[in-house]
Amino acid sequence: MKSLDLTKSALSNTLRSKLRTALTVIAIVIGAFTLTLTSGLGAGINQTVDRIFGGFGVDDVIYVVPQMEADAQEQDGPPEYDPEAGVEPEDGFGTGMLSAADVEIVEGLDHVVGVDTEVAAQLEYLQAPDGGQYQAQFDFALNDVLAEFAAGGAPDRGEMQITLPEDWLEIFGTEDPEDALGQTLIVAAPNAVGQTTEFEAEVVGVTQGTLAGVGFTPIPSVALAEEVADINAEGYEGQMPEAYIMAAAEIENLEANEDAVKDALAAEGLWGLTVEDQIAMFEAVIDAITWILSGFALIALLAASFGIVNTLLMSVQERTREIGLMKALGMSRARVFTLFSMEAVVIGIMGSVVGIGLGLIAGFVTNGLLTADDGPLGGFAELSLFGLDPFAIGGIFLLIIIIAFLAGTLPAARAAKKDPIEALRYE
Amino acid sequence: MSTPVLETENLVKVYGRGPAQFHALKGLSFQIHRGESVAIVGKSGSGKSTLMHLLALLDEPTSGVVALDGRPVSKLKPKTVSALRNETFGFVFQQFFLNPNQSVLENVTLPLKIAGVSRSERDQRGMHALEQLEMADKAKNRATDLSGGQKQRVCIARALINNPDVLFADEPTGNLDSATSETVENILLNLQRDHGITLVVVTHDEDLASKCQRRLIMQDGEIVEEQTGVRVSSSRKAPITGGQGRPAPRRRRLLSFGRAGAR
Ligand SMILES: Nc1ncnc2c1ncn2[C@@H]1O[C@H](COP(=O)(O)OP(=O)(O)O)[C@@H](O)[C@H]1O
Ligand SMILES: [Mg+2]
To answer: Can you state the angle between helices A320-328 and A275-318, rounded to 10 degrees?
Structure first.
């Protein structure tokens, strides 16, 4: 029998008992639909992440934070108090903060060109030109490079400048982000004894919140954050140890020296991360979630494959005579096997085409509704929850066809094994 | 004399194993020559179908040899045997075995489809075969919409489509009334006479058997009698040329077969 005739026969055979085929196909459709949605979700979020982080110019920076204690995550009960250990105020180790000494070490490392530090800065309020006062918490000054701007840009790190998130525009009574640029805010910071000091800062940018969590609060310039921290420290009795949340070390030729700097940092009990490392960590989490969700879809497909086995076994049983006749008339075992496994593949193709098609439609429509400007997730800049990954779609298609084929092998082998005489005697 | 198209030597078929085993064929040796018409007759359960299946290479003997054109077939690969069946044999069955989901033409051309012949050639040859059997006007009908005689004619068309050397028919008239039987018998015998097709018929119907050139009469897995020559239908006194020297009881059986046919 020619391949074309085999294919046609397989197709017309599957269409013979339409209801049964349809029910089997539906099971496949559910699996294909779910897989398409989960993989599309992963693709969409990862594409968003790539898009957001992709445009960063500041590529030569390693962010430095204190290394977490090895047993900080998984310890059994609280550690016992050790009077000998004491507290070393000069050392930020274990407090989650970098000490001044740590920053000096970073500055002294090979290949480090410059270091910016992130201080903890506590605000009393921000005051609008019309006198309105608003509670606020600063974003990290060093996050300026991660922000998405609706207008303007990042603050100059040495100037008293600040950016505001989009929803703060109402303090200027405007909706146009351009209107906020150049406005002057009064920054009020408390000192150690509760007194408030005010100074002025210029608004230079309006941010949109990103998936990385940046831009939902005002971003100060480095100088502004340090000014606030200095005010916070005023009136403190005794010497307040300098502490930094993190440091951004600018590296000459990052590509070549990245590992050397990271190793040197690790030797000092510090942890260095590039922007790429942070993206990779983020994407690893997204991928893990995608895989877990896809696992459920695979279970659905596995169940569906038993549907194929069942349907085809029934079909082989019903068509015993037909199979016997074909074998008596000279059809080889291999061809009979091919005919029936082809029927499984046809079911697989029908299910995957419909399932993937529905999945793509559902994915893009839902994404459109959720991330529209007035949708529930419209506040995130450039967020897309669903993306088209042609390789993933191709992979799903292939996977389902392979599963369908494998499911078809048992019934097909049954059919191929049928003895023509027995089959023709079958009443 | 030319090599027989089919030849058997000490053919034995045993069904089952151990105490339950059943000797369906007990060592048969005979020849069928090209262009001959041979009827295998005998009571139900005597082993006729079993013998036909072995001759038609649908089954393998427990021991003994089947030779096609002088070549023993036991050494052939399954694939070669399938191809041989497809190209050399035609089959007509009592139960028709037509596919109800397909048209008459599709049913008739199934052997060509299996052989890998193109659609257009299939249809052309299928129509030709149907014309021969005066069924061309039913080509597009569903196979289930036909009467019994029409169905059997479709089956014969299907059996003829690959120009077989040997046509096997297992009880071809078993499901037909006597008038229709007559038509089908004539078609089969005309094919044998006019086209030189070797005809092997398994039948109860001794009207059909008597029209064949040779009859192998079977009983309990053995050929108990061999008759040669076309006999005048339903003649009790027809000369019995085969089976000289057979024991009397067996001859009586043969006679009773003759009587049964004289309705
Ligand atoms: N597959 C089988 N297994 C066991 N016994 C069988 C099988 N096929 C046929 N037989 C037995 O072999 C004998 C001959 O059967 P068969 O050739 O079909 O007879 P006929 O066609 O003459 O009626 C019968 O007794 C039947 O029961
Ligand atoms: Mg029989």
So the answer is: 80
Of A250, A274, A298, which residue sits at a domain end?
A: A274
Interface test with A, best of B15, B52, B82 (most A CBs within 10 A): B82
Residues A384 and A262 both lie in one domain:
no
Residues A26 and A121 in one domain: no
Cβ-defined contact of A328 to B58 (cutoff 8 Å): yes
Position B203 in a domain:
yes
Ligand 2 center–CA B93 separation, angstroms: 10
Q: What's B206's domain CATH number?
A: 3.40.50.300
Q: Nearest residue on chain A to B118, judged by CA atoms?
A: A2
Distance CA A204, CA A159 (A): 11
* ipTM for the complex shown: 0.84
pLDDT for residue A162: 94
In whole angstroms, give the CA distance from residue A425 to residue A423: 5
Q: What's the predicted TM-score (pTM) here?
A: 0.75
Residues A193, A87 share a domain: yes
Which domain, by its residues, includes B223? 36-46+79-254
Q: Whose alpha carbon is nearest atom 24 of ligand 1?
A: B45
A42 with A119, same domain: the answer is: no
Q: Does A6 touch chain B (CB under 8 A)?
A: no
User: Three-class SS of residue A7?
Assistant: helix
Residues A38 and A80 in one domain: no
Question: Which residues form the domain of A206?
Answer: 61-274
Distance CA A207, CA B51 (A): 91
3 state SS of A128 = coil
Q: Which position has the higher pLDDT, B169 or A233? A: B169
Q: What is the pLDDT of residues A215-241, one digit of tens each?
A: 889 999 989 998 998 888 888 776 666
| Residue from A140, A159, A161, A142 nearest A206 by CA | A161
**Number of domains present in the structure of chain A:** 2
Same domain, A224 and A351: no
Counting the structural domains of chain B, the total is: 1
For A321, the closest of B82, B97, B110 (CB atoms) is: B97
- Whether residue B219 is contained in a domain is answered as yes
Residues in B lying within 8 Å of A, measured between beta carbons: 53, 56, 58-59, 78-79, 82-87, 91, 93, 95, 97, 99, 101, 110-111, 113-116, 118-119
Same domain for A366 and A293? yes
* A83 and A218 together in one domain: yes
Find, among B132, B173, B169, B165, the residue nearest to B40 by Cα: B169
Token duo for residue A69? 């204690």
Residues having CB within 6 Å of any atom of ligand 1: B 15-16, 22, 24, 42, 44-50
Residue B88 carries which side chain, given as an amino acid letter? T
Q: How far apart are CA B50 and CA B55, in angstroms?
A: 9
**pLDDT single digits (tens) A334-356:** 999 999 999 999 999 999 999 99
- Of B13, B22, B93, the one to substitute when testing ligand 1's pocket (max ligand atoms within 8 A of C-beta) is B22
SS3 category, B95: coil
